[in-house]
Amino acid sequence: MALSELAAGSAVFAAFGGFVLVSSITPGPNNTMVLASGVNFGFVRTIPHLLGISSGFALMIALIGLGLGSLFTALPWTWPLLRVAATVYLVYLAYKLATAGGVQDRQVARPMSFLQAAAFQWVNPKAWVMAVGACSAYVLHPNLWLNVLLLAGLSAIINLPSVAVWAVFGASLRRWLARPRVLRVFNVTMAVLLLGSLWPILAAGH
C-alpha cells in the first residue's frame, strides 16, 4: 500500500474519531441524564447506564450501516412515529427527573439499567443524527461488513469515556448537592435541559 493511501486512510480514521468525540462529549440527552445519575446515584451505580449508552449506540450504527436507514427512507411514515415516541419518552424522563426525591430516596430509586440505556438510543434524537452522519460521511474500509464493524467498534471505544466524564463530574457534585432542596433544584434544571433536547425533533416536524 502506498504511503499516500496510508495517509489518506489515517486521515479518515482521525476525522471519524474527532467526529465521534465531539458529538459524544458535548451536551445532549445522554450526557444530561448521566450527569444527573452521577449526582443522584454516584459513579459506580451509573456504570450500567454508561455501558448501555455505548453498546446501544454502537448497535445503532451497525444496523444503520447495514441498511436500516434505507428502510426508514422507504417507509417515510415511520419517521413521524419515531418523533412521537422520542417526544413522549423524553417528556416522561424529564418528569421522572424533575420529581426525583432527595438524598433519603436515593436508595429507593434506581439508576437507568444497561438495557434501558441501550434502548433509549433509538428515541434519542442526537444519537440518530450521530449515527446517520457517521454512516453517511465516513468509509473506513471498502468492505461493507468490516466498515460497519470499524464504525461501530470505534464509536463504542470513543463514546464510553466521553460520556463517563459527565458521570464523574456528577459524582463529584454529590456532596455539594446533599441538601434535598438544592438537589431538587438541580434535578429540575436537568429536566428542563432534557426537554430542551426535544428541539431537533420538533424542528424536524416543520
SSE layout and pairings?
Layout: H1 3-25, H2 29-41, H3 43-74, H4 78-98, H5 114-120, H6 125-137, H7 144-172, H8 180-196, H9 199-204
What is the structure about, briefly put?
With 206 residues, this protein is mainly alpha-helical. The chain has nine helices and no strands.
> From N to C, what is the helix and strand string?
HHHHHHHHH
Count every beta strand, where a strand is a DSSP E run of 2 or more residues. Answer: 0
Main beta sheet strand tally, sense and closure: none
Compute the CA-based radius of gyration.
18 Å
How does the overall form come out from the CA principal axes?
globular
Give the count of structural domains.
1
Strand content: under 5%
- How would you classify the quaternary structure? single chain
Mean pLDDT: 84
**SS field, number of helical segments:** 9
Sheet/helix structural class? mainly alpha
**Separation, N- and C-terminal Cα atoms:** 48 Å
Instruction: Name the poorly predicted regions.
Output: 1-7, 103-108
Helix content percent band: over 70%
